[in-house]
Design a protein that fits this description.
Belongs to the glycosyl hydrolase 10 (cellulase F) family. It is built from 13 helices and ten strands. It is of the alpha/beta class and about 325 residues long. Strands 1-2-3-4-5-6-8-9 form an eight-stranded parallel beta barrel, surrounded by five helices. The longest helix has 20 residues. The site of ligand G3I has 13 residues, from loops. Ligand G3I binds next to loops.
Length: about 325
């Protein structure tokens, strides 16, 4: 099947309405997202705060729109995400942290959510980032994950099992950042995968996010690290690739940085292409105007393949050339 080339598609994190959603409001965005990529990930539309804003109310409008658009374009969909420490609605955070809600009830909340969301998109979402960012940099369980704080790491197994029951065909992933290289964090994921497999827990993939910076160096050994996971029988994917650049107080990147960025993108795509079992590379946004980077890293941006006007950058051409040679 080859390697799918994906993009995150943007939409407001607020309740499911479509206002401000470029997939609806911007014809050029829709065309580029629909034509240049073979897979999409809802950047925020599948997160708990968006899709399950109140205990007894789900809001599928935004996620439905992404899935329908992808189907119309013949694209795959990567679901994102079911168990995470961020973008949870206040009611859920309260339930998990108050100490007032019995464990069995918290488990029931997770069970309902996973079953409802995965079940709704069964057969239409091919991969799910079920478990997102559960380990800290030193490989321990993250101290700020309210699920793990409340229920212990067994929730990881529960979420995977329930997701599998809701859609036996979906490929279920663990996904994290800072795991591009071999090291404490990716080593710990390797251990976790071995443990899950030994217990018969359904886990099918490992997602390496790939939020890179030209100032930090390209993660050497990426392909070898991916192979450690495919050697265990897992699929792997690069799920959230971007390469941020210093842009001063504007959006202007230097030519040298743009070339360096192109080389990072080339290396990331090459690594996936050379690893059997690497199924996709997803970039974390269609163009620089929609990237999360400038909001989170002062004086950095220009992290994607297309610029603010959706015009191709050197990185776009580098990726096109790598894929043409594949
Ligand atoms: O749309 C609302 C707006 O209405 C509101 O006024 C404003 C006030 O804060 O928030 C806006 O929503 C923001 C949303 O992005 C859309 O811009 C949220 O606050 C903000 O938290 C949200 O950030 C997202 C972040 O995850 C948290 O969910 C980013 O878009 C998204 O790119 C980022 O993606 C994550 C992956 O899911 C997991 N890996 C890391 C990656 C980057 O942080």
């Amino acid at each position: 099947d080859g390697v799918a080339v994906g993009t995150a598609v943007a939409a407001p994190a607020g309740a499911g309405g479509t206002s401000g959603d470029p997939l609806h409001d911007d014809a050029r965005y829709r065309e580029v997202a629909g034509q240049q990529f073979s897979s999409v990930t809802p950047e925020n539309q599948g997160k708990w705060a968006v899709i399950h804003p109140e205990p007894d109310r789900y809001d599928f409008a935004a996620m439905d729109a992404v899935v329908e658009q992808a189907e119309a374009n013949g694209q795959r969909v990567r679901g994102h995400t079911l168990l995470w420490h961020r973008s949870n609605p206040p009611w859920l955070t309260d339930a998990l942290t108050s100490g007032q809600v019995p464990d069995a009830e918290l488990q029931q909340i997770l069970h309902d959510h996973v079953t409802t969301v995965v079940g709704r998109y069964a057969g239409r979402v091919q991969e799910w980032d079920v478990v997102n960012e559960v380990l800290a940099d030193d490989g321990s369980w993250r101290g700020d994950n309210p699920w793990i704080q409340a229920l212990g790491p067994g929730v990881v197994r529960d979420a995977l099992r329930w997701a599998h029951e809701a859609d036996p065909a979906a490929r279920l992933y663990l996904n994290d950042y800072g795991v591009e290289r071999a090291g404490r964090k990716s080593d710990a994921y390797l251990e976790l995968v071995r443990d899950l497999q030994a217990e018969g827990v359904p886990v099918h993939g490992f997602g390496v996010q790939g939020h890179l910076s030209v100032e930090s160096g390209f993660p050497d050994g990426l392909a070898d690290n991916l192979r450690r996971f495919t050697d265990l029988g897992l699929d792997v994917a690069i799920t959230e690739l971007d390469v941020r650049l210093p842009v001063g107080d504007g959006t202007h990147a230097s030519g040298a940085d743009l070339e360096k960025q192109a080389d990072y993108y080339r290396q990331a795509f090459s690594a996936c292409l050379e690893v059997e079992g690497c199924t996709s590379v997803t970039v974390w946004g269609v163009g620089d105007a929609w990237s999360w980077v400038p909001r989170n890293y002062p004086e950095h941006g220009a992290a994607l393949l297309l610029d603010e006007h959706l015009e191709p950058k050197p990185a776009f051409r580098a990726v096109r050339d790598v894929l043409a040679g594949a």
